[in-house]
Amino acid sequence: MSGPLPVVEAAGGDGAAGAVTRLPRARRVPSWARPDPVADLAERLAGPCASAAHPEEIAALLESEGLTDEQITERYRHRDLFALAESLFALVPRAYPEPEPAADPWQTDPGRCVLRGLTFALPGVAYVVGGRWADGPGGPFGVTTAVAGWAAAALCSWGWNQGLSHRAGLLLLAQRPRAAARCLLAGGAAGTALATVAALTVTGVAHPSAPAFAFGQALYMAAATVLLVLGRERSLLYVLAPLTAAAACGAASLPSPAAATLLAATVAAATALAVATALRRPAPGTPSGPRRGLAAWLRRSAEAPRATEPGTRRRPAALLTRRRTAKGGTAALPRVRWPRRRSGAAAPEAAEGLAPVAVRRSVPLAVGGLAAGGLVVAAALAGEFVAALTVSMGVAEWLLFRFRSRCLTALRGTGVAERLLARSWRVLVRCLAGYAAALAGLAGLESAALPGAAAWDAPHLGVLLALGCTLWLALLLQSCGRPWTAAAVLSAATATAVPLLATHVGAPGTVIGLTGAAAGAVLLAAATTVTARVTTHR
Questions:
Q1: Are strands 7-8 and 23-24 parallel, antiparallel or unpaired?
Q2: What is the pTM of this model?
Q3: Strand-pair partners of 323
């Protein structure tokens, strides 16, 4: 379309008569070549419109841009704000931003797990030093009343402290370190009294050395619970170092007063350190203890904005001041006046931080700990590998964290439930096999290093592997939010094994191995089902 422009003739104002002024005439643009204002608006607001989950979000955005009703009807040729928002919602394709990858809350330090395993096993040295007070009249299960009293006190302390540590951990997660410290101190004192009463019930007062040893055992276990919950494993290891060194140098041959002084000093040092750690004033707003990483992860998850999946609806980003009427128009919404909080009133977040933690949440942990302790004590009385099992709890803890971390990675890498099941099953098999190999290796070390330990043969290894894998699977179910399942299976196994051992039906190792293997099979089936669910790892 080339050529001279059309001209419009006009008389000259101050020039010569008849002069013609040539003005260019506006070219008529066809309708198909005219710019679309709605398309221009969609291109300008492409980012916010693409991330909107509902047209009302775009309507709120347009209103914040200052569009008036006249501009909407005359320039954009839509009847109201909501109609224009619906056009933009249909015109711009959805493109939801991907959330930022969150930190893995199941990362842990392997060295810390090794330290915890040592702190679990080294207190057994006290039985080498205090074995001289184990003599006395015969008691149940073919042992003396002193040993039976110590076992009863250990079972009470084991179950009580399991529930106590879980409750203190919940208080730490709720950002209540003072309440956690009070819970540990008061609960530790109550658990010590309960275990001492249990030991006195079995031993009586005829031989005061046996209940005195049980009291020291219960007091130490309470102090160790405080230190382990508050993340002072290294300090507890320093407390146990003199006793361990003395036992390695032949403390079993020390005179009874010297041995009693050594044990009492160790218990007193652990108790004093536990009380000082619990009473220490924490930094304001800083979670304390070994669970501070998980507490920070929970706090970040609560503060982070939730990504909206396609197909879901959410509230608009801005509060609309207009609404659609029944006739298709718009009307102003009434202003909402929110009640002001008085200066002396507590903030909702502070009130929520002081919310009580239900005691019933820790009951299944206590029941499971008592049942697991019954199996371990029965294995100890039967002469099985117990030192290796105790040390392996550090390896078990690390493998548990590794399993949860790998399952979380598998969940982020796949969106199909069947694939998650296959991946979680492979990770479970590898972790369980690694723990079994660690158990076998530790059992070999125990058999070679400790005099009077069980032989490193197939029968004893079978009992150890059955019992150890059962305990690891129970810990896995507890970490996945199924503590009652683990407690029920362990309680059933203990309730089956103890009567059989009391009535001498079969060899003790055979009874413990078969009941442990049966419980492990049930727990394995439950763990396979639970860990394959997406909701378990969220």
A1: antiparallel
A2: 0.70
A3: 331
